[in-house]
């Protein structure tokens, strides 16, 4: 009737019970790890060996314990977890676990079982353990009121000063000396006349500053010594753009040469003393930034029309062009030093922030594209050509990400990130300002809401008293121009000179003596002794000498032991 046996009729009827089935085959117990490995290797060797017939091999019968012998017949074996089974499984590694298979020492390909984890080989790098140390609040520059709505730069620094656009009217830009930390009261500033969109310190003169404004002006300022108060008159005002100017960059090798870009979708080259010299056209949307190559003979632009363009700035011709990013949010580009490569940072079609690496000889497609995260802020790239490290930071991000660029695939290697307060922008100090004795590789100024935080990046090393040549190759000299503006515009090109960062009183690590490792308990290693008795005697002598020194230190009378104490009953008075 289908009613459950032993239940009253009130329970109700259930579906009829299925007809009895034959007893299922007993499932073999799970083999130990060694046996599973042997089975996997045997199976791989069978598949790798030439098969004489196309018929599928017949599986040998299983015993009641699930064990198989070499001939394919069942045999009784101990439980898999017993010591006997483990010994048997260990000894079976070199035997033939299945009929027709070869041994483990065969040259056939081996498929790794799922039980064994993959071994990940970590790439060796000099910068894998880079650490960042932010200054304490007392050592920061506090009391600022920055205007973070600037189109491009919000902080720029050189070896003596840094500048930040300030809130208020007239386009004020504050000038702050690096040597004066703490609360900044009544800072020195310049007045640009309208909102300052970008600014840049001259690499050849620490007191020369270029600014661009909403009024489409390029202004050149000569900054006096600290304490000048306010400055309203620039040494030069250059006009030529039709709409607001958004970026400004000095030439790396020629004096008084400046490049600017504007919302009129053009790039213009200026001689500070002679006015506009060249106009570059081509972009069909707003230009993101400009970047010079190592010698200043080529100029690359990023644009919101998604195209990366390389110009010959003196002729105005487009040398190469290609799509820099897939997204519509715009991107930024940076030339990678002496390499024929450009790195771009921007957004993909899926709104991922990415880094793309391009060969400047062919911009049709990137050499490598790496996804960073899904942040919304526009990223800014900074590159150190001495050590091939790319720094990436975004407006509002609380971290600076580090990547190492190499000539071999996969080309872009993530190193680490330096966490901190959310920043409006960052600026790197010149390489000549770092402290090589503390193994610093970079100094950064990070602009927060109301203060500027200095951050030092360093690499841990054990022998810091020696100069680390692998971290400090000769760096570029930027304090002196190699040619005049007139020479550069007529076609001259010069290779930048370099200078060593090694202090005169430091010895290079390559010339340092071999490091003597300290031995435990101060017992020196005994070598070249023929008699075992002499070795024993010397070891015991050194041991007794060391332990006796410890006993003397423990038995030493301390100063507080000689002081007069207080009786226990005297504590009742309190």
- Unreliable stretches (pLDDT < 50, length at least 5) are 1-5, 30-34, 46-113
Shape: globular
User: Tally the helices: what do you get?
Assistant: 4
Number of strands: 33
Share of helix among residues?
A: under 10%
Please give a structural write-up.
- With 574 residues, the protein is mainly beta.
- 9% of the residues lie in helices and 30% in strands.
- The chain has 4 helices and 33 strands.
- The strands form 8 sheets. Strands 1, 2, 6, 29, 30 and 31 form a 6-stranded mixed beta sheet that branches. It has a 5-stranded mixed beta sheet with strand order 3-4-5-7-11, with no helix packed on it.
- A hairpin with a 4-residue loop joins strand 19 and strand 20.
- It is globular, with a radius of gyration of 37 Å.
- The relative contact order is 0.08.
- The N terminus is likely disordered.
List the helices and strands and how they pair.
Layout: H1 33-48, H2 83-91, E1 131-134, E2 141-142, E3 156-157, E4 161-165, E5 172-177, E6 182-183, E7 188-191, E8 196-201, E9 208-213, E10 217-222, E11 230-231, E12 236-239, E13 245-250, E14 257-262, E15 267-271, E16 275-280, E17 287-292, E18 299-303, E19 307-312, E20 317-323, E21 331-335, E22 341-347, E23 353-359, E24 368-373, E25 379-384, E26 389-394, E27 399-405, E28 412-419, E29 425-428, E30 440-447, E31 451-458, E32 475-476, H3 485-489, E33 498-499, H4 532-554
Brief summary of the model shown:
By secondary structure, this protein is mainly beta.
What are the defining features of this structure?
9% helix, 6-stranded mixed beta sheet, disordered N terminus, 5-stranded mixed beta sheet, globular, mainly beta, 4 helices, 574 residues
């Amino acid at each position: 009737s289908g009613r459950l046996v032993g239940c009253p009729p009130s329970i109700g009827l259930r579906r009829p019970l299925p007809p009895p089935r034959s007893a299922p085959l007993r499932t073999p117990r799970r083999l130990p790890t060694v046996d599973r490995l042997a089975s996997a290797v045997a199976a791989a060797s069978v598949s790798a060996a030439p098969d004489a017939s196309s018929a599928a091999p017949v599986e040998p019968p299983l015993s009641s314990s699930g064990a198989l012998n070499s001939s394919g017949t069942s045999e009784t074996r101990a439980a898999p977890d017993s010591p006997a089974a483990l010994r048997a499984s260990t000894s079976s590694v070199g035997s033939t676990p299945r009929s027709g298979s070869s041994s483990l020492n065969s040259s056939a390909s081996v498929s790794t079982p799922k039980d064994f984890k993959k071994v990940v080989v970590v790439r060796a790098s000099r910068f894998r353990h880079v650490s960042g140390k932010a200054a304490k609040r007392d050592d920061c520059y506090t009391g600022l009121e920055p205007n973070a709505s600037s189109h491009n730069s919000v902080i720029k620094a050189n070896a003596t000063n840094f500048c930040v656009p300030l809130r208020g009217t007239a386009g004020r830009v504050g000038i702050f000396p690096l040597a004066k930390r703490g609360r900044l009261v009544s800072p020195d500033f310049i007045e640009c006349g309208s909102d300052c969109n970008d600014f840049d310190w001259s690499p050849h003169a620490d007191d020369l500053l270029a600014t661009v404004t909403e009024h489409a002006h390029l202004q050149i300022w000569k900054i006096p010594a600290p304490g000048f108060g306010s400055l309203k008159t620039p040494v030069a005002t250059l006009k030529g753009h039709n709409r607001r100017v958004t970026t400004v960059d000095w030439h790396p090798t020629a004096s008084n040469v400046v490049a600017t870009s504007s919302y009129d979708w053009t790039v213009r080259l200026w001689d500070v003393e002679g006015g506009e010299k060249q106009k570059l056209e081509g972009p069909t949307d707003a230009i993101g930034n400009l970047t010079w190559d190592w010698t200043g003979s080529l100029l690359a632009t990023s644009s919101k029309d998604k195209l990366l363009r390389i110009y010959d700035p003196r002729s105005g011709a487009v040398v190469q062009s290609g799509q820099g990013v897939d997204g519509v949010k715009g991107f930024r580009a940076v030339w990678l030093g002496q390499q024929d490569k450009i790195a771009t940072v921007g957004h993909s079609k899926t709104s991922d922030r990415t880094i793309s690496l391009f060969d400047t000889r062919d911009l049709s497609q990137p050499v490598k594209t790496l996804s960073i995260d899904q942040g919304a802020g526009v990223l800014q790239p900074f590159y150190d050509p001495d050590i091939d490290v790319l720094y990436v930071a975004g407006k509002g991000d609380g971290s600076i990400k580090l990547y190492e660029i190499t000539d071999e695939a996969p080309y872009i290697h993530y190193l680490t990130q330096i966490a901190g307060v959310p920043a409006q922008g960052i600026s790197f100090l010149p390489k000549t300002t770092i402290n090589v004795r503390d193994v610093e590789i970079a100094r950064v100024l990070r602009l927060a809401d109301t203060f500027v935080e200095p951050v030092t990046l360093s690499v841990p090393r054990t022998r810091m008293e020696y100069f680390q040549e692998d971290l400090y190759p000769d760096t570029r000299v930027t304090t002196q121009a190699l040619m005049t503006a007139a020479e550069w515009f007529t076609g001259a090109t010069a290779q930048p000179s370099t200078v060593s960062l090694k202090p005169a009183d430091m010895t290079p690590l390559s010339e340092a003596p071999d490091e003597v490792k300290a031995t435990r308990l101060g017992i020196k290693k005994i070598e070249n002794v023929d008699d075992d008795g002499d070795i024993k005697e010397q070891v015991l002598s050194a041991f007794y000498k060391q332990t006796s020194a410890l006993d003397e230190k423990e038995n030493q009378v301390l100063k507080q032991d000689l002081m007069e104490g207080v009786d226990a009953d005297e504590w009742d008075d309190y």
